[in-house]
Design a protein that fits this description.
The longest helix has 78 residues, at 377-454. Helix 2 (52-65) packs across helix 10, helix 3 packs parallel to helix 4 and helix 28 (906-912) crosses helix 29. Helix 19 links the parallel strand 20 (693-697) and strand 21 (716-720). Helix content is 54%, strand content 14%. The protein is an alpha/beta fold. Among the domains are: 143-280 and 306-316, Response regulator (Rossmann fold, 3-Layer(aba) Sandwich); 378-475; 498-654, 2-Layer Sandwich (Heat Shock Protein 90); 693-816, Response regulator (Rossmann fold); 823-940, Homeodomain-like (Arc Repressor Mutant, subunit A), CATH 1.10.10.60. It has 30 helices and 24 strands.
Length: 945
């Protein structure tokens, strides 16, 4: 071989050998055992492993630890021996565990060992029972005092607050025994009719229970209830009652409510126990708290586990939940076993893969050497020339394509701008169009509702025609709402404002609204849920429309004697929730199924089922906004099932932390219609003699006239046609309630409410806002301004009148509250709101002039800077009494204080408080307190000896 060839091939051979060596090191490195990640060691000192409750505690720990293979748990059983448990705790300390969990047998003896571990820097978690010291890191367990109180409350309801009880105690000295007894005694103290006539110490087992319990029951035949500190002793008590023939007369309640044969849930289901108080072992929570402490994450020092009463009403639900948890745990264990096998398979296949990689790299290196040795310099130059020519051609093509792309981009920008302009114009058109429909819908639906509810002399055809008008008006309103929602979805103007709530309760309310129409049609409506509570993030205004459309369609297409089933259950391992609406209707034909979610599409369902073609398309659009899916399945002639799948969690940008207002079938505020009517709308017919005055502020003359006529049947009514005149009339007349529109020229309804609340003359007046602005932020704005009620148009006149009566009734209760405040010896009132500030100012003026016998209402009004009529109506509205009576009551309240001063005679007290004569003072005092001043003084001043 020539030196030239040797020189050319040497770099290639060296490169090949280098690749082989590096690949070998790569394979050996991948085959080397990986370093294990650092883990934790947790020591658990258990007072005893005997009994199913303690075993369930350990099982809970193991379930939680199955998710954390890096954690090692070492368990030591003290066998109910406090001395042995101290030694075990010190043994864990010597071993240097990262964290210590202790479930003490007795509080006092174990305390020194726990304090020693705590002082040496080892975190200590007390589980189920406490020590006699506060030197521990965290506590996990139930509230035994609350367990006793809960048992007492339940027994009180069961025995109707009268009966004799026998209490079975646990081990003396145990914190669980003392705390459960304490809570039980505290709960019974609230019910004098319940008595504990005997106590038996069961030591948590049955072996020492039966002889003593037999003697106690024979000595106290009046016992009707046994409270056992755990379910095991309760089971033993049942056997004793069987032997004595007392099972029908004596009821038994235990504590723990654990699952498994012969345990609390099983005993309640079989009727051995009447009830059991849930006391969770807390194993899972103890491990979770331990991991938070070890990982330096935030944790709670006190982790109190909740408790409930388990009886025949909910025992099946708890059994099903426990069975589901057991099944899920088995699934987790199977998945972990499969994962372990897969990891082993992966490790073995990785070795083969590395050898293949080395072989492939060697082949590539040898191929590169052969290709490089065969390449000729002339061929390389020729290829380079061809490549340069090709590059020039490609560059010219790229320049031309760039010019075309730039031109197309400019055209697209122009088209996009035009599309945005057209979209905004369309949205404005649909919004304005809906505004124009609001006022006529209000003036149609309101009178029709009134005629149907308050006109008994209507003939059947008239009532039928009115019902037809109401039905079609409501349908028109629904179509307008759907049309606007369609436009908002199409242009991306509809936002999701989700809050966290119970989805089961939300769907149940919608289903309840369909119960009556379903019953009238003979349709069986069923609502099935897998869990009573399913918390999720959702926007109620969006989902309300979705489920309303689905249920409306189901009811529309389900024949008489059919069935609609709504089911709700978690999906995707709890990350999602699935709501299905299934009917037994005619189903959807195959040719319609591919178009069922298209806007304005109407299938071949016959004239009776015709609609707008927007309901399902709107529902799908709203579900997608909610990041969910709407699917369906249908069999012609058998029915259809629509399924809504929603995530339980939503991104932060879709969440709202303010409560969502309920959906109202209304749009925005209509444009005001100009009117040539005067400032006040005079009504025909006799004036109402009611003392209640209502002020109507509405710029639309027809709506103003309608409201005035409807309210005049029950109240005296005055009206104003704009905000400025309405506020002026409110300050002059001081009405009892104001009904005000929101969108008005000049001064809006929100500004009227703000001014009313800022002026102490009108701050007390309830205000009802009427508007078509239904967005949640608009309703919140109205409430924040100070409105007491926010009603959207169209509104039901009967609902408005009942709402006014409710507000006036609430105002009357508030007046009674103020009267009670003023009736106490201290005559001053805290100025926490404008009404109380007014009362404080009024009280101060009267108290400063108490000695004036000629003090008049005009004098007080002049001091406050208002008219006599304004003062009278303000005091009447706030206190429900006249000004003169208020002054008299204040003087008599002050008299009680002065009469306790023995240095003053009764005559001096009378003149000091502005009474014209002592006799008039005595008569007034006796009429108010049913005691003469002298008798009052005798009763309240002790005699001197």
């Amino acid at each position: 071989m020539s030196p030239k060839h040797y020189v050319n091939k040497m770099p290639v051979l060296r490169f090949g050998w280098l690749v082989l060596v590096l690949s070998s090191f790569l394979m050996l490195g991948s085959c080397a055992p990986q370093k294990k990640t650092a883990g934790y060691r947790i020591g658990f000192s258990q007072c005893s492993m005997a009994g199913p409750w303690r075993k369930e505690m350990l099982a809970g720990m193991e379930r939680e630890l199955s998710f954390h293979p890096e954690v090692q748990l070492q368990v030591l059983d003290a066998h109910d021996d406090s001395q042995k448990q101290q030694e075990q705790i010190r043994e864990f300390v010597q071993q240097g565990v990262d964290l210590l969990i202790v479930s003490p047998y007795e509080s006092e003896p174990v305390t020194p060992a726990v304090e020693e571990a705590y002082r040496r820097g080892i975190p200590v978690i007390l589980l189920d029972r406490r020590t006699a010291s506060q030197q521990y890191t965290a506590y996990v367990g139930g509230n035994n005092v609350e367990v006793g109180q809960t048992a007492a409350r339940y027994i009180s309801r069961l025995l109707k607050q009268r009966g004799n009880i026998l209490e079975i105690l646990g081990t003396p000295g145990s914190s669980a025994t003392s705390e459960r007894h304490l809570g039980f005694a505290q709960g019974l103290a609230l019910h004098p009719g319940l008595h504990v006539v005997a106590q038996v110490t069961g030591d948590w087992t049955v072996r020492t229970l039966k002889p003593e319990l037999t003697k106690a029951l024979q000595a106290h035949p009046e016992v009707t209830m046994i409270f056992s500190h755990n379910d095991g002793m309760g089971h033993g008590a049942y056997e004793v009652c069987q032997e004595l023939g007392l099972t029908k007369r004596v009821r038994i309640i235990g504590v723990d409510a654990q699952a498994g044969p012969g345990e609390g849930l099983d005993l309640v289901q079989r009727g051995v126990l009447d009830a059991s108080i849930l006391y969770s072992p807390g194993g899972e929570e103890a491990i979770r708290t331990a991991l938070k402490i070890l990982r330096k994450a935030p944790f709670n020092k006190e982790n109190i586990l909740g408790t409930i009463v388990v009886d025949s009403t909910n025992v099946l639900t708890l059994l099903q939940q426990n069975e589901k948890m057991r099944t899920q745990q088995q699934d987790i264990e199977r998945q972990q076993s499969l994962l372990h096998r897969l990891q082993q398979t992966y490790a073995s296949q990785q070795v083969v893969l590395n050898w293949l990689l080395v072989t492939l790299l060697g082949a590539v290196a040898l191929g590169a050497a052969a290709w490089r040795s065969a390449r000729k310099n002339r061929q390389i130059n020729h290829l380079l020339a061809l490549q340069n020519a090709e590059n020039d051609k490609i560059n010219r093509q790229l320049v031309h394509q760039n010019e075309e792309i730039l031109q197309q981009r400019n055209q697209l920008e122009v088209m996009a701008e035009q599309a945005r302009t057209d979209t905004e114009a369309k949205l404005r058109f649909f919004t304005n169009f809906s505004h124009e429909l609001r006022t006529p819908l209000t003036l149609i639906l309101g009178p029709v509702e009134e005629l149907l509810t308050s006109s008994p002399d209507l003939t059947a055809p008239q009532r039928q025609d009115l019902a037809l008008v109401r039905r079609n008006t409501q349908r028109l309103l629904q179509l307008v709402n759907q049309l606007l929602d369609f436009r908002k979805i199409e242009v991306g103007k509809m936002a999701v404002r989700a809050t966290e709530s119970n989805l089961v309760a939300f769907v149940r309310e919608i289903v309840d609204a369909f119960e009556k129409p379903a019953h009238l049609r003979g349709v069986d409506l069923r609502f099935q849920v897998a869990q009573p509570v399913l918390m999720a993030w959702f926007d109620g205004n969006i989902l309300d429309k979705v489920f309303f459309n689905l249920l409306s369609n189901a009811l529309k297409f389900t024949p008489e004697q059919g069935r609609i089933t709504i089911s709700l259950q978690p999906a995707d391992e709890g990350r999602s929730v699935r709501v299905s609406v299934a009917d037994t209707g005619h189903g959807i034909s195959p040719q319609d199924q591919s178009h069922i979610f298209e806007w304005f599409y109407q299938g071949e369902q016959g004239a009776v089922a015709k609609g707008s073609g927007m309901g399902l398309a709107l529902a799908q659009g709203l579900v997608r906004l909610h990041q969910g899916q709407l699917t369906f399945s249908s069999q012609p002639g058998q029915g259809s099932t629509f399924v809504v799948t929603l995530p339980r969690e939503l991104p932060e940008e879709l969440r709202s932390h303010s409560p969502t207002a309920p959906l109202q079938l209304s749009l925005d505020e209509p444009e005001p219609i100009t009117s040539e009517l005067g400032h006040h709308l005079e009504q025909e017919g006799p004036e109402n003699t009611s003392e209640t005055l209502v002020l109507v502020i509405e710029d639309n003359s027809e709506v103003n006239d309608f409201l005035t006529r409807k309210l005049r049947t029950d109240f005296r009514v005055q009206s104003a046609s704009d905000g400025h005149s309405g506020f002026r009339m409110a300050t002059e007349l001081i009405p009892d309630l104001i009904v005000c529109d929101v969108m008005m020229p000049g001064l809006s309804g929100l500004e009227v409410v703000t001014q009313l609340r800022a002026d102490w003359r009108t701050s007390h007046i309830p205000v009802v806002l009427l508007t078509a602005r239904t967005a949640p932020e608009q309703q919140v704005e109205g409430v924040q301004a100070g409105a007491d009620l926010y009603l959207t148009k169209p509104f039901n006149p009967t609902f408005l009148q009942e709402s006014i009566r409710t507000l006036l009734s609430n105002r009357a209760r508030q007046r009674e509250h103020f009267r009670r405040e003023l009736s106490i010896d201290t005559a001053t009132v805290a100025t926490t709101n404008p009404d109380q500030k007014f009362l404080a100012d009024l009280t101060a003026i009267v108290e400063a002039n108490l000695t004036r016998s000629n003090l008049s209402v005009e004098d007080i009004a002049r001091s406050l800077g208002i008219s006599r009529m304004q003062l009278y109506r303000k005091v009447k509205a706030v206190l429900g009494t006249g000004v003169t009576d208020f002054v008299q009551n204040l003087r008599l309240t002050k008299a009680r204080e002065l009469l306790l001063d023995e240095s003053l005679t009764i005559a001096e007290v009378a003149y000091e408080l502005g009474f014209s004569s002592p006799s008039y003072f005595s008569a007034s005092f006796k009429a108010h307190y049913q005691l003469a001043p002298s008798e009052f003084r005798t009763l309240h001043i002790a005699p001197h000896y």
